[in-house]
Amino acid sequence: MSENTNKTVLDNQFGQQTDVNNTNTESGPISIDDLEVNDPELAALKKQMMEMEQEAAKLRELQAQATKAISDEQSRDEADARSVYIGNVDYATTPEELQAHFQACGLINRVTILCDKWTGHPKGFAYVEFAEKSSVETAVQFEGSMLHDRPLKVSPKRTNIPGVSRGRGRGGGYYAPRGYFMPRGRPFHRGRGRGRGSFHSPY
Q1: N or C: more exposed end of the chain, with fewer CB within 10 A?
Q2: Contact at 8 Å (CB) between 108 and 197?
Q3: How far, in Å, CA of 53 to CA of 41, rounded?
Q4: PANTHER family, from UniProt (predicted)?
């Protein structure tokens, strides 16, 4: 009987050891969230890293915007280098007539007649954009040529002409044919090429 008692005691001790081992085995890995609760420094570090990532994303966005702005500015400057200013334009002159007048100078991309923003009346000057820069030299030779019995003033386009602005603002209206819808402050252009084309807004 004493042997049975000793055996029972040994079994109980083994069972207790088994329970302890099972407890350690079943415990899973500690998560980051649990560590953050117990370690404020780790939580602060994670927050700081997230803020740094957000700042880096904002910086990349600003750099992309700056690059696009520079590219757009260069494109406008390049287009200006292929354009001429036409002054003393009769108010009844149409873009088609200006295109026909200067088509001998080379392929024309765009004809723009400036109008008063508030009244919609032509201001008496226009711009002609050519496909090639060399066409500007030829167009300048048309200085004094007659259109609607008025001598035209022709010179290379300058972006700093007083009273002329690239953006929206006073004096930013554009000429459009009668009955054609014109969004406020938007230019209307001829299609590329010498053939007939309808007025349209590329913006």
Answers
A1: N
A2: no
A3: 19
A4: EUKARYOTIC INITIATION FACTOR 4B-RELATED, EUKARYOTIC TRANSLATION INITIATION FACTOR 4B/4H
Among 77, 97, 81, which residue's Cα sits nearest to residue 89?
97
Distance CA 30, CA 46 (A): 17
> What stretch of H or E contains 137?
helix 134-140
The whole-angstrom separation of Cα 30 and Cα 37 is 11
114 forms beta bridges with 174
Q: Could you read off the pLDDT tens digit of each residue along the chain, which spans 203 residues?
A: 555 544 444 555 455 544 444 545 555 566 656 655 677 888 888 888 999 988 888 888 888 888 777 776 777 888 899 999 999 999 999 999 999 999 999 999 999 999 998 998 999 999 999 999 999 999 999 999 999 999 999 999 875 444 444 443 334 434 333 333 333 333 444 444 443 333 333 33
| pTM of the complete model beyond 0.85 | no
From the list 103, 77, 90, 73, the residue with the least C-alpha distance to 158 is: 77
Which burial class, exposed, middle or buried, applies to 126 when counting CB atoms under 10 A from its CB (0-12, 13-18, 19+)? buried
Amino acid making up residue 70: I
Residue 104 has what DSSP assignment?
G
